[in-house]
C-alpha cells in the first residue's frame, strides 16, 4: 500500500497573499538558490535573491546516500528559505532538485523532509529538463538578435550544453561531470599539480567527446556561460587582465598556470576568487578548459540568468496558457501516431465525469493539477499501440516513464505512467506504493475516471451520450445513462459490467442505471 504521507504542512490562506509574487528554488549539487520575482503583464522583475553553498554533492557516501551532515545542512537551508516563502502563494512557487538528488538513494526521504521545511513540494527534474530551463532563463536575459547560441552551465554534479536561437532550443545535452565531482576525483587531497590538472582536463574531454560532433555540426555564433564556476572564472580573468573581452582559452591557461604554481587549493591567491568558490574551483576550471578545446570555443560571455530564472518564466508560461507540457504531449502523439480524435472524445467525456467527482473525491491540490494530469494521460494512453496492441498499456507506461518530455518532472511522469498502466485490465495497486498515501489515493480516483471514459468510448462511436456520475461513501460509483441508452448499446454495457468486476477487486462498486 502507499506510504503514509508526512504531517500536513501548515498553510496560510491565500486571500491576503500577493498573487503577483513568484518564487523559484534550485536545489543544486553545489549551492541552493532562491529568487523572488514580481509579475506584471506576463513579465517578471526579480526583487530578492538568496544563495547558500550547501555542497550537497560532497555529502554523497560510497553507497550513494546523502550523509546525515549533508542531509541536515540541506534541510536547515530549506527552513531558512521557507521563512521567506510564507508571503507567496504556494501555486506560484517552483522548487526543483538536480543532479545530486537525481542520483542519491535517499533522495525521496530528503524530498519529504524538505517539503516540510520549505512549505511546498520539491520536484526532481532530468538533466534534459534542467538544460531546457537553463536555456529558457539565459535566453530571456540576452539581447534580441538572430545569433545561434551555445549556452553552457557547470553545476556541482553535471554540466549542460544547449544550442538555440531566440527563446527556442534546438539541442539539449546534460553530461555527468560537475565542479564538485571533478574536484573530488582529481583534487581531493588539496593538491593541484600539472599532472593532475592535465588528467582532469583529459577526463572531461573524454566525457564531452561523444557530444562534440552534434554540437559542432549545429554550430553557434555566440557562446554564453551561466553558472557560478563560469562567472568566477570570467571575473578572475577580467580583474587580472588576461583577456580583452570575455573568457578565452588563452586567459584560462594563464589562470591554470597560477593554480598549478599555488600547489594547493587552500593556497590559491587570485584577485576575484571568493573563499566559498575556492573548494570546487579547480574542477570547474578543468571542465571549462576541456569544453573550449573540444568544441573550439573562441570566446564566451557570462550570463546573470540561469535555471531559477527559467523556472519563473516557465511558471508564467503555464499561467498564460503557454504550457510547454502541452506541446510535449502533442509531439509525443505525433511521434507515436496516436488517434488524436479518439483521445479528444474520451477527454470530453472524462471532463464531465471529473467535474462530477471533483468535490466528492477532493481532486484538488496546490501541488498538482489533477485535471491536466487526466488530460495528458488520456492524450497519451494509446502511445503503446504503436509498439503492439497486446498489453499496450504496459508499453504506454514504459514509454512515458522513460521519455525526456520537456516540462515534466520525474514525479509527473511517474504519475502518468501509473495511470496508463492501470487504464485497462486488472488494476495493479503496487505502482502507487512509493507515493504519499493521500496523493496515491487521489491518483487512484483519477485513474477510475480515465478507465470509465475509455470503456465508454471503446467502440470509437463519437456520438455517445454523456453519463451522469454520482459517488457515495467514496467507493460506490453510480453511472446513469439516458432512458434505454445502455440497452441500445449492449457491447458498452458488457464492457462496463466487466469494469465493475475489476473495480470490485479493489473494493469499489460500480452500478449502472
TrEMBL record:
CDD domains: ASKHA_NBD_EcPPX-GppA-like (cd24053). It catalyses: [phosphate](n) + H2O = [phosphate](n-1) + phosphate + H(+). Residues 324-499 form the Ppx/GppA phosphatase C-terminal domain. Its EC number is 3.6.1.11. Residues 35-317 form the Ppx/GppA phosphatase N-terminal domain. Keywords: Cell membrane, Hydrolase, Membrane. PANTHER family: EXOPOLYPHOSPHATASE. Belongs to the GppA/Ppx family. This is Exopolyphosphatase. It comes from hydrothermal vent metagenome.
Amino acid at each position: 500500500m502507499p506510504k503514509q504521507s508526512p504531517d500536513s504542512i501548515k498553510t496560510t490562506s491565500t486571500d491576503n497573499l500577493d498573487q503577483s509574487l513568484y518564487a523559484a528554488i534550485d536545489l543544486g549539487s553545489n549551492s541552493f538558490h532562491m529568487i523572488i520575482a514580481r509579475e506584471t503583464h506576463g513579465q517578471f522583475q526579480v526583487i530578492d535573491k538568496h544563495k547558500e553553498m550547501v555542497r550537497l554533492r560532497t555529502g554523497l557516501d560510497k553507497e550513494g546516500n546523502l550523509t546525515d551532515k549533508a542531509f541536515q545542512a540541506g534541510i536547515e537551508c530549506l527552513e531558512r528559505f521557507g521563512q521567506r516563502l510564507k508571503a507567496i502563494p504556494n501555486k506560484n512557487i517552483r522548487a526543483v532538485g538536480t543532479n545530486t538528488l537525481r542520483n542519491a538513494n535517499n533522495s525521496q526521504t530528503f524530498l519529504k523532509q524538505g517539503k516540510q521545511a520549505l512549505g511546498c513540494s520539491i520536484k526532481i527534474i532530468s538533466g534534459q529538463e534542467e538544460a531546457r530551463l537553463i536555456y529558457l532563463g539565459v535566453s530571456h536575459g540576452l539581447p534580441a538578435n538572430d545569433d545561434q547560441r551555445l549556452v553552457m552551465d557547470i553545476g556541482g554534479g553535471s554540466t549542460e550544453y544547449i544550442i538555440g536561437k531566440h527563446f527556442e532550443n534546438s539541442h539539449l545535452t546534460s553530461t555527468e561531470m560537475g565542479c564538485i565531482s571533478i574536484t573530488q576525483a582529481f583534487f581531493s587531497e588539496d593538491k593541484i599539480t600539472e599532472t593532475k590538472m592535465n588528467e582532469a582536463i583529459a577526463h572531461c574531454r573524454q566525457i564531452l567527446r561523444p557530444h562534440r560532433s552534434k554540437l559542432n555540426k549545429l554550430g553557434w555564433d555566440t557562446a554564453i556561460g551561466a553558472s557560478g564556476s563560469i562567472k568566477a572564472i570570467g571575473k578572475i580573468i577580467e580583474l587580472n587582465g588576461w583577456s580583452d573581452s570575455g573568457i578565452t582559452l588563452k586567459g584560462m591557461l594563464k589562470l591554470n598556470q597560477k593554480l598549478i604554481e599555488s600547489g594547493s587549493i587552500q593556497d590559491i591567491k587570485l584577485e576575484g576568487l571568493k573563499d566559498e568558490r575556492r573548494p570546487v574551483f579547480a574542477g570547474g576550471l578543468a571542465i571549462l578548459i576541456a569544453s573550449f578545446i573540444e568544441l573550439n570555443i573562441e570566446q564566451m560571455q557570462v550570463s546573470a540568468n540561469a535555471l531559477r530564472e527559467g523556472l519563473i518564466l516557465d511558471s508564467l508560461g503555464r499561467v498564460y496558457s503557454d504550457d510547454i507540457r502541452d506541446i510535449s504531449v502533442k509531439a509525443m502523439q505525433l511521434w507515436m501516431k496516436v488517434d488524436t480524435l479518439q483521445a479528444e472524445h474520451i477527454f470530453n467525456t472524462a471532463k464531465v465525469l471529473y467535474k462530477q467527482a471533483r468535490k466528492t473525491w477532493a481532486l484538488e491540490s496546490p501541488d498538482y493539477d489533477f485535471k491536466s494530469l487526466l488530460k495528458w494521460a488520456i492524450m497519451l494512453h494509446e502511445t503503446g499501440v504503436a509498439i503492439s496492441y497486446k498489453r499496450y498499456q504496459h508499453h504506454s507506461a514504459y514509454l512515458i516513464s522513460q521519455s525526456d518530455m520537456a516540462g515534466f518532472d520525474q514525479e509527473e511522469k511517474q504519475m502518468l505512467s501509473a495511470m496508463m498502466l492501470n487504464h485497462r485490465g486488472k488494476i495493479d495497486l503496487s505502482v502507487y506504493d512509493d507515493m504519499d498515501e493521500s496523493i496515491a489515493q487521489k491518483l487512484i480516483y483519477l485513474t477510475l475516471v480515465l478507465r470509465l471514459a475509455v470503456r465508454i468510448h471503446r467502440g470509437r462511436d463519437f456520438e455517445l451520450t454523456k453519463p451522469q456520475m454520482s459517488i457515495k461513501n467514496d467507493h460506490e460509483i453510480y453511472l446513469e445513462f439516458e432512458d434505454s441508452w445502455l440497452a441500445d448499446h449492449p457491447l458498452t454495457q458488457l464492457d462496463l459490467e466487466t469494469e465493475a468486476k475489476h473495480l470490485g477487486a479493489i473494493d469499489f462498486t460500480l452500478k449502472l442505471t
